[in-house]
């Protein structure tokens, strides 16, 4: 089997674990199940078939095995808003031959994932055909699905891998973090492009002046007979200069677009840096599950007294919670945490209402004064005391 073949895998974890793999055309590659199939054995089996770019599950709450699989492969997880119904799954797998319900669920998960990403695959296919990118189509799919960049950005990264600015942008996409040296590097590149742009423009203007002079010099020729009356060398000279002008105009337009993009990035970076002393930096997590934490911890480096911004605090891993208890006292959450989660975690969850938050992919920035006011407020102090009491009660019951 081709190790570079891009695949979708659906996983149904449990005492009997099942998995199903599809290619990116929706064709079934394999459907298997086995008892006590752990993460390492599952990885060993599936990764022999190809490179996994998408993982499907039929559960709204992502199983820990699926999260671990995603963390180890870098594949994107596709999951439903609500658990897929039994009737719905049966309808999806009716035309396929399977051995048990576990395989049905795994196959349904993979087909659900394929249906969700199919519109993206179709757009990439159309883009590759229209822009002569068939040779790098799989690489584009890999970047778009796993790194969540646009189709054009993915193609540009692949085709310009040797450029310094592409290297910086690729690193930012993969690590989702920015450093001051990267800002300075982009600034130097933007200045170099501005200089090249001015030279190209000057050269193009000179060619236009030369072309107009030649046109005036030979304007007395009959257009119909110019092919015989005008020297062939002169004709070639005219044609060459016209092609040069067209090429330079396109090159100027391309450089101009690159300069605008780089200047936009530099302005955004400078704006963030200029406010760094007046804001608290919140470290962002989508949820408190192990896959999300494993994917981001080496980038965020969550340390003692950090404040987190979490989209959904109701997806949790005991290992992550135990780690955060030692370091984080307060988590700002976009969705309210359930009372059970609050009781179990022993961490205070704060609603962001009234807080002015500015976000990037990996971090959020909040005015220092607003965070300090929240930490001093009676409501938050009351929450801290209540959550501490609940966590002590939960711990006593569990003992």
Q: Can you give a write-up of this model?
A:
The protein is of the alpha/beta class. It folds into 3 domains: 6-125, Nucleotidyltransferase, domain 5, CATH 3.30.420; 180-274; 277-398, no CATH class. The protein is 57% helix and 16% strand. The chain has helices spanning 39-46, 64-73, 86-93, 101-130, 137-147, 151-159, 164-175, 180-217, 226-229, 232-274, 290-300, 318-325, 339-345, 368-376, 378-398; strands at residues 6-12, 16-23, 28-35, 51-56, 76-78, 279-288, 308-316, 330-333, 348-350, 358-359, 363-367. Strands 9-8-7-6-11-10 form a 6-stranded mixed β-sheet. A 5-stranded mixed β-sheet has the order 3-2-1-4-5. The protein is flat. The model is unreliable at 172-176 and 388-392 (pLDDT under 50).
List the helices and strands and how they pair.
Blueprint: E1 6-12, E2 16-23, E3 28-35, H1 39-46, E4 51-56, H2 64-73, E5 76-78, H3 86-93, H4 101-130, H5 137-147, H6 151-159, H7 164-175, H8 180-217, H9 226-229, H10 232-274, E6 279-288, H11 290-300, E7 308-316, H12 318-325, E8 330-333, H13 339-345, E9 348-350, E10 358-359, E11 363-367, H14 368-376, H15 378-398
Parallel strand pairs: 1-4, 4-5, 6-7, 7-8, 8-9
Antiparallel strand pairs: 1-2, 2-3, 6-11, 10-11
């Amino acid at each position: 089997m081709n190790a570079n073949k891009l695949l979708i895998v659906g996983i149904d974890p449990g005492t009997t674990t099942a998995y199903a793999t599809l290619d990116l055309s929706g064709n079934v590659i394999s459907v298997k199940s086995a008892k006590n199939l752990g993460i390492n054995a599952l990885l060993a089996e599936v990764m022999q078939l190809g490179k996994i770019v998408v993982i499907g599950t039929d559960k709204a709450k992502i199983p820990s095995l699926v999260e671990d699989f995603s963390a180890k492969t870098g594949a994107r997880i596709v999951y439903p808003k609500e658990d897929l119904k039994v009737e719905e799954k049966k309808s999806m797998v009716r035309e396929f031959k399977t051995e048990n319900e576990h395989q049905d669920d795994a196959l349904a998960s993979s087909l659900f994932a394929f249906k969700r990403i199919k519109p993206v695959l179709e757009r990439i296919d159309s883009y590759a055909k229209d822009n002569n990118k068939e040779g790098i189509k799989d690489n584009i799919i890999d970047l778009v699905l796993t790194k969540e960049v646009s189709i054009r950005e993915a193609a540009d990264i692949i085709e310009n891998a040797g450029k310094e600015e592409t290297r910086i942008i690729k690193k930012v996409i993969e690590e989702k973090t920015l450093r001051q040296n990267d800002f300075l590097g982009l600034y130097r590149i933007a200045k170099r492009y501005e200089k090249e742009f001015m030279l190209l423009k000057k050269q193009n203007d000179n060619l236009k002046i030369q072309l107009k002079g030649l046109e005036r010099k030979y304007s007395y020729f009959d257009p119909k007979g110019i092919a015989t009356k005008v020297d062939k060398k002169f004709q070639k000279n005219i044609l060459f200069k016209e092609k040069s002008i067209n090429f330079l105009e396109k090159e100027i337009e391309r450089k101009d677009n690159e300069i605008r993009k780089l200047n936009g990035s530099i302005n955004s970076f400078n704006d963030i840096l200029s406010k760094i002393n007046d804001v608290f930096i919140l470290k962002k997590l989508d949820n408190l599950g192990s896959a999300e934490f494993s994917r981001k911890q080496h980038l965020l480096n969550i340390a003692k007294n950090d404040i987190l911004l979490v989209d959904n605090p109701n997806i949790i891993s005991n290992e992550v919670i135990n780690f955060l208890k030692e370091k984080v006292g307060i988590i700002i959450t976009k969705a309210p945490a359930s009372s059970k989660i609050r009781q179990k975690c022993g961490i205070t969850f704060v609603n962001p209402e009234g807080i002015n938050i500015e976000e990037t992919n990996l971090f959020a920035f909040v005015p220092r004064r607003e965070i300090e006011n929240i930490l001093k407020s009676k409501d938050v102090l009351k929450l801290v005391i209540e959550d501490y009491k609940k966590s002590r009660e939960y711990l006593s019951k569990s003992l």
